[in-house]
Amino acid sequence: MAITRIGNPAIANIREPNFRNIVINGDMSIAQRGTSQASITSGGYYTVDRFKTSIDNLGTWTQSQSTDVPSGQGFAKSLKMDCTTADASPAAGDSIFLDTKFEGQNVQYLKKGTSSAESLTCSFWVKTNKTGTYTVELYDQDNNRSISKSYTVSSANTWEKKTVTFAGDTTGAFDNDNAKSLNVFFWLGGGTNFTSGTLQTSWGTITNANRAVGQVNLADSTSNEWYITGIQLEAGSVASDFEFLPHDVNLTRCQRYYQIIADRTSTGERMAIICGAAIATGTGAGVVYAALQFPTPMRASATMLSTTVTNGYRLLGDTQPTFNVLSASPITNRGARLSNGGTLSANATSGKAYVLECELNGSNLIFSSEL
Questions:
Q1: Are residues 208 and 67 in contact, defined by beta-carbon separation less than 8 angstroms?
Q2: Residue 287: pLDDT band by 50, 70, 90 thresholds?
């Protein structure tokens, strides 16, 4: 039976590659840490996964995962920066930018450091009341090299799509490992240490004065706010349509770097830590161990980010004692051995089985392997 091909035969066999977007969570849909954080004056991860706020003495901010998005583009969430304490006269070393990082092993196909180095195109949607010039910078962590490009916000309080293209860099290969190799910085303001030179629009050794020349100061008024979504970074000199991934796939990719096993954030149901093999057996007076397997393997051996809450954890079993601190040692990228650290004295019965539980509001079990 003959097969009739419908459509343009020249493009019928072309398939867009999966995961062409190097950016993880570029649609701002995953926010494991929460949807809003006020009084930001220092660097850290606050709301949307994979996007770190880097700030050095330039204003006070509220960051949130917003539902304000460009109409008809398929986005449901954006990241919003809202200036709450202004700084109209930054000191020379002051700065603020949004930062997302990538492992070296994930960018080997860019062929950086060779004569075949790929160009990179960054596209995104942005909205702000403050028009003017903004800066996007790529930074090669392995070789201390950077390149910056500017974009202009033309219309206040209007979603605009921006595209900037960076030439390939024939100098300095990325390390082929799970450490950070490439950063993308979205600048929001900087002092003269970062703005007094000539914008470095070609790859070269990083020179601070050339990184964000012409950049507006979003921190100069408490009326200022800035939204971004749909960030895509891809090989080549042309921006393609944003690559939407299923929610579960996006979440799993984020959990490689930050993972919540249990988080008692309300007075509702208690959170039992039953993931994987989290069934504990008392091996001696007061010491209970539990083997925990992460739902998603993490980038590297993780760090436990656990909050100390008075009697915040409980053991369910032969007895039901509560305790303050949950320990984890050893921790790998695949799991951890949990322990109450012997804080129960003789309250746990040797040889009995227990289930660990977050008992009180504020107790949690969170692991991080951020770049």
A1: no
A2: confident
